[in-house]
Amino acid sequence: VFGAARGVLRAGYSVGDSSVIAALELNSPLIQIGGLISQDYTRLDVPSVAHIRTGRIVVEPAEEARFESKEGRS
Asked: What does the alpha-carbon distance between residue 25 and residue 69 come to, in Å, rounded to a whole number?
């Protein structure tokens, strides 16, 4: 999203856990990636990404994002 994401966000319906949600401002009441759902995360007003790490949705500033490989390493 090249702007603020404030609505319900869903990604990964067909590709699952490897999906990423990115926005300039991530302030959504609900994030769903694949089969995981998160409503409890720190809202960020900086460019941010939501992705799955170690079986849970992680939301972090884009410049600090670490992505997990298929082997489980960052």
From this structure: 25
Backbone Cα Rg of the chain:
11
Q: Is the residue at 70 inside a domain?
A: no
| Structural domains counted in the chain | 1
CATH number of 40's domain:
2.160.20.70
Is residue 28 a contact partner of residue 42, using CB atoms and an 8 Å limit?
no
pLDDT tens, position by position, 16-48: 788 999 999 998 999 999 999 999 888 888 999
Task: Single out the residue of 20, 52, 49 nearest to residue 36, CA to CA.
Answer: 52
DSSP lists the bridge partners of residue 60 as 49
Q: Whole-angstrom Cα distance, residue 33 to residue 19?
A: 7
